[in-house]
Amino acid sequence: MKKLTDFKYSHVLVLGLAKSGTAAAKLLLANEIEVRVNDINAEEDEESVIALRGMGAEVIVGSHPIHVLDDIEVIVKNPGIPYENPVVKEAQQRGIPIITEIELAGQLVDESIIGITGSNGKTTTTTLIEAMLAKSNQPVKVAGNIGNVATDVAQTLTKGEKLVLELSSFQLLGIEKFKPGIAVLLNIYEAHLDYHKTFENYKNAKHTIFKNQMNEDYLVYNRDDSTLVDAVKKAKSQKIPFSVMQREENGAWVDETSIYFKDEKIIDRESIVLVGKHNLENIVASIAAAKLSGASNEGIREVLTTFAGVKHRLQFVDTIKNRVFYNDSKATNMLATQKALTSFAQPVILLAGGLDRGNDFTDLIPYLKNVKGMVVFGETAEKLKSLAEDAGVATTVMAKDVQQAVETAYSISQENDVILLSPACASWDQYRTFEERGNMFIQAVHTLV
User: Fold this and answer.
1) Where residue 190 falls among pLDDT bands split at 50, 70, 90?
2) pLDDT at 25
3) Which amino acids are annotated as binding site, given as ranges?
4) What confidence tier does 1 reach under pLDDT thresholds 50, 70, 90?
5) Domain annotation for the chain: domains and CATH numbers
6) pTM of the complete model beyond 0.70
7) Residues 6+ apart with CB under 8 A from 440
8) What role is this protein assigned (predicted)?
């Protein structure tokens, strides 16, 4: 097992188990560090609880007693636990540092890390970069917010192997020394304000991806996002812009027919199979990061001429009687749904709804011009039904869940319609994850035939 190279703490509280907490606790224990684990939802007889106790950890489950902070020097916090948590608030008052498992992963990796963050497009861009490197015969693994625990993957890296990390704002809030050799900052829009409270806090969390970078590092950023252009001025790394609107002599850019890196043509746009203007931004960002990492033009082209999207992100599912079904369950905010809707010129039946975070959804109205019908579900169903009526959507139907929504959408559809699940909401009112919601959509589509 790889050792932590620069970890100065000897008594650690791992707050929250799940996959990342369990992995962090095991890593710390293997490095002979005293570990206390606290999880309010775990049960005494759970496999992870039993295993960690067997390795020497103190494990407290079922509540968050303040005494778990006694003698603690640092907290490794599950990214999903809010900072309003009583233990977290008390730790802040006591001046106890709070990090996430990503900080530990950074200490395990000798080779350069490629880190990707942004409000939207992270998973697609992460997947593209990994694939471009792999097709260029560059050894690479992927981890982070994409589903693979970073510390687990980092321990398996061989010499020369790169680590591509998808990084959420929740993860980035908990770093001290972590830095990617290549940071990719895609975009920043209002999101997760229930967690961060203000847009400024959210932006600052995203900006930490480059806070520890130095002159030998690279920062790939979206020149078309004015908030990013201003933010990256304080970065010490080499700035590599990407744009879908203007030529970039020192970055990646597009014209009407082709995509370029600096002055080198990479691929004809008509050869790319991934749909959507937002995906064009993801592609250009991916090319910049991949080229900086040593990817070949041939490897990049092979990916872009075959890659049709990641699961749950504008994923083509099936065509049934000339109706085309797309699963965009990862669209957990309005911006993502706006981008999905701009990807189609044909009539759309939109399936939307989920956790109510207080949004009024009026920003969706300009994007509903091609939407001939909406099937709404979840806590926000009434809000979205009212929105659809205000926008002049011809048909709006309420459904109890995604499966019924698919059946209803199919029943009101016609040939050449797109039936699109793009909820504009988190899934947690009815489903544990957006993946579970997307899988229900896929299953429901396949049962139509």
Assistant:
1) low
2) 97
3) 118-124
4) low
5) 11-99 (3.40.50.720), 102-304 (3.40.1190.10), 315-446 (3.90.190.20)
6) yes
7) 401, 402, 403, 431
8) Cell wall formation. Catalyzes the addition of glutamate to the nucleotide precursor UDP-N-acetylmuramoyl-L-alanine (UMA).
